[in-house]
Give the backbone structure.
Amino acid sequence: PRCLVMPVRVGDSYTCDTNQFALATYYSVNQGAAVIQEALGALTNPKLAQDAVDYAYAHNVLVVASAADETSMHHNYPANLEHTLVVHAVVYDGDDWNSDNTTTFVNFNNCTNYGGHLGLSAPGEACSSQATGLSAGHAGLVLSYAKQLNLSPPLSANELYQVMIMSAWDINVPTSPTDPNKFFSGPGWDAHFGYGRNDARASLDMLADGRIPPEVDLTSPRWFEVLDPARTPTLSVTGSLNAFANANTAQWKTALNLKVLWADLHRFANSVPAGTKSEWSIQGEAQSTAEGFSL
């Protein structure tokens, strides 16, 4: 509730040069920002942008990023860089939020994107940009409460990300597979709604109860990396897992593309060093496409 806002200009409109975003990210982190909010669409995707987001992540500053507004599955940058929390918008389906014909408040907003990197669905009549602002405020509220609780160590960027997605209200409309007016949704994560709608109260309850999820950081394959089964018959999934706040065991679950084709569960102790966690044979899973598939 005592969060401060530091506006940093990176361009004249939503569309920007990502180098300017990268420089602004470095600047914001060095000025003490706790959360970075960006509602941008990039003309470029230089290495500097990923380096800047990684710099923020290493300094425990979460980058909350807009999925963009084309009602498309296209990969908007800088949102689809590694170590971001990608958000988009959901809305009511009637004439107004209190209209008699309104049946839900989690309808897919028809000026917002979706896809494999989507994390959360926040209310937003003004497309993904409004949802990004609300989600950044959500992140700030969680960090503020963590300070009030004197959490030690403080929440990391990854733990903040995990708290926000794990506390989300699942969007699962049973009739969506057969309703031509609805985007598909299912139990748990899905490509149209991510992990669900932001639930700030549930996030704070998780902190109050000491239920802080473990950090999970996948380092390979990268987001939307294209793989040719002829050249890469076996895919190694590498990363690290750390449960600093709890001594409980954790489960590692791997899945391919937008549907769970595998459900490999691996139980680890509370800390797992970086390295290979799973290996899949992908030759038989990509026969339907000549160019491989994207993870």
